[in-house]
Amino acid sequence: MRILIVEDEKSLAEEIVQFLRNEQYNCDIAFNGRDASEMLAVNLYDFVLLDIGLPDYNGLDLIREAKQYNSEAYFIVITARGELDDKLKGFNSGADDYLAKPFSILELHSRLQAITRRKFGQSSSIIRFGNFALDITKLQLLHQATTVNLTKKEYDLLSYLILNKGRVLDRLQLVEHIWGSFYEDDFDSNYIDVHIKNIRKKLSEFDQANYIKTVRGLGYKFEDV
Amino acid sequence: MFINRIKLKNKISIINALSKVLIIAISVFIIPWIVNQMSIRDLDQQLIDNLDKTYALVEQYGIDEFIKQGGDQQAYGSYNIFKEEYISIEKVTDTSLFEEIDYSKRSIEGETFEYRVISATFESGGSYYLIEIGKSINTIIAFQKQVKKFTFYFLLVLLGITILFELAITQYLLRPFGKIIERLKASNHPKNFDYTPVKTTSSDFKDLEENIHGLMRKIESAFNEERDYISNISHELLTPISIIRTKLDNFVNTTQLTDDEMVKIIESKVTLGRITKMVRTLLLLSRIDNEEYLLADKVNLNELLTGLGTDFQEHFEQKNQKFELSLPDQPAEVQGNRELLHILFFNLANNAIKYTPDGGKISIRLFREEGIPLAEIVDNGIGIEEENLPFIFTRFKKFQESGNNFGLGLALVKKIVDYQNFSIEVFSKPGEGSRFVIRCN
After folding, report:
1. Are residue B411 and residue B281 in the same domain, yes or no?
2. DSSP string of B45-70?
3. How many Å apart are CA B283 and CA B289, to the nearest integer?
4. N or C: which end of chain B has fewer CB within 10 A?
5. Which of residues 173-202 of A touch B (CB under 8 A)?
6. B273: distance to nearest CA of chain A, Å?
């Protein structure tokens, strides 16, 4: 997977790159729109992570331009404006996804994974654990042939935990993932616990194994037993 | 006080009218009095002339012409036919000489006449005589009455005409002033102020208008600056927050940490989350001020509120709160911005949940009143102190005594309500709960 990170804030770009390289992504960085434009014309990328607020370039123009050379690339737009209107603008201009600053790199990671899996077809888009199969294309969980009846939020939470398998996800990250909203301020709330409890209950109807571990005081972690 | 509520033009008219009434009142008494004084003075002169004429006659013909010496008649008297004048001469024993003019009443043949009388004594042929010449002042009294009446009616008519005239003139002259006030009243925000010059020929109104325009422009630019400032600073803050956030995430990912260390980092992230939320809300507020949101969506409130109920399901479960949603059969649709309307009701519902203890009850009711959709969010939570009610929509208003912090949530609610041209009312009693009613007109 080759990713181009276009971010004028060096420190932020470097942090993202450090994380993604750890995850075995192949990363290039452009600190301005002009460099990015050149790199997009020369190289082929699977993902482009683009900060829309570049000092020297209109980010939306850059996407339009890049689509000519990198029509297969997924464009994830980062913005500090954090609004739906921008999001729509982004989608019209060819952006595939959108992250508002500040975002969690685990959120970015799970989105990259989901897109990657979808991109590489049916087999990759199904994640198996025990006798369960999570289909991230169809957004459903199956136990053998039976559909596990999850609500949208329960599905979102479970898939997020699964895509970040083995990592502790704190409540803040989980709340942000399912609410995605900036007007929710109860980060330390226990609302997440209700969902986890419900997910566990639904899974246990099929399988007694404890897939979702509680890490006391921290959050939750998915582990394939 | 009532006087404080009267318009300037009416005050001017009232003062004008009062001063005129005063002038009339004075004139009605003063003018006849002056006329009277002048008439009396004229009369007195006539009496003196007549007395002189009589002296001349006595001189010329002797006193015998009037009073026969040694005869029975010791006095002479004569009235003219209408009793307007009389003259009397009589012999007196008093030898002092005097001359005076005074009023005197005479009853003649059952009729009372008031006279102005000149009395004098003179000496003729060794004897002393008292002479009196009187002229009736009834005509003068009648004339005075007439003058009084005429003056009164004349001034009354004059008063009416001038009041009407002045009313029209002040109305005309003060019209620009009224217009300036109207414009100030009509603009709820400097950016809506009508800057077209008001037609006036009065320089003070021109000055007033120019000064108001100057002030308005200053306020408007201060508003704009503040808005841009908030927008820029919010925007600029999000990148550094993002850097810290990513660094913390990376640190957790790449370092073996004890649980205690992890907890500390998570706590930092929660704090960072709070800052983020605040900055984003400020950004949102300034974007609404900038009118960056289109009010172009047809939003089905039935759907929006149903969705909200579902979204909050785990909140209600977590706090064991009872939730009731009552919707009209005919879906209520409003014109507006879907995103903003969602934030509006989200914040109100979120507050209701937050400020209602476990086991409480929250209800959302959507209904129509005269065709206008009304949404009501009711809880039986802690409520709001009456003295705090006027400030709940103010940004960052903190209430020490109750420990509540209204922060930005309700400020955002109010901002959206205003932007949507809706109205909001709050009813609350401490310990009993709160009721927010939004009128979506």
Report:
1. no
2. HHHHHHHHHHHHHHHHH-GGGTS-TT
3. 10
4. N
5. 176, 181-191, 193-195
6. 7
Best residue in A5, A10, A15, A107 for a mutation probing chain B (most B CBs within 10 Å): A15
Identify which of B68-82, B180-194, B373-387 has the greatest average pLDDT.
Answer: B373-387
Q: How many domains does chain B have?
A: 3
- The string over A118-156, giving b where at least 16 C-beta atoms fall within 10 Å of a residue's C-beta and e elsewhere, is eeeeeeebebebeebbbbbeeeebbbeeeebebeebbbb
Q: Is the pTM of this model over 0.80?
A: no
Q: Is B339 on the interface with A (CB under 8 A)?
A: yes
* Element counts in chain A: helices (H) and strands (E): 9, 12
- Assigned CATH for A121-222: 1.10.10.10
Minimum distance, in Å, between the CA of residue B251 and any CA atom of chain A: 10
In this structure, is residue B256 part of a structural domain?
yes
Asked if B263 reaches chain A (Cβ–Cβ under 8 Å), the answer is yes
pLDDT digits (tens, 9 = 90+) for B282-331: 888 888 888 878 888 899 999 999 999 988 888 898 889 999 999 999 99
Greatest C-alpha distance within chain B: 162
Same domain (yes/no): B284, B385: no
DSSP state of B198: P
What tens digit of pLDDT does each residue of B206-247 get? Answer: 999 999 999 999 988 988 888 788 777 877 888 899 999 999
Same domain for B252 and B312, yes or no, is no
pLDDT tens for each residue of B386-437: 888 888 888 877 665 544 455 788 899 999 999 999 999 999 999 999 999 9
Do B283 and B303 fall within a single domain? no
Residue B281: closest C-alpha in chain A: A183
Tell me: do B71 and B134 sit in the same domain. yes
CATH, domain range A2-103: 3.40.50.2300
Query: Where, residue-wise, is CATH 3.40.50.2300 in chain A?
Result: 2-103
Query: In terms of residue numbers, what domain contains B345?
Result: 297-439
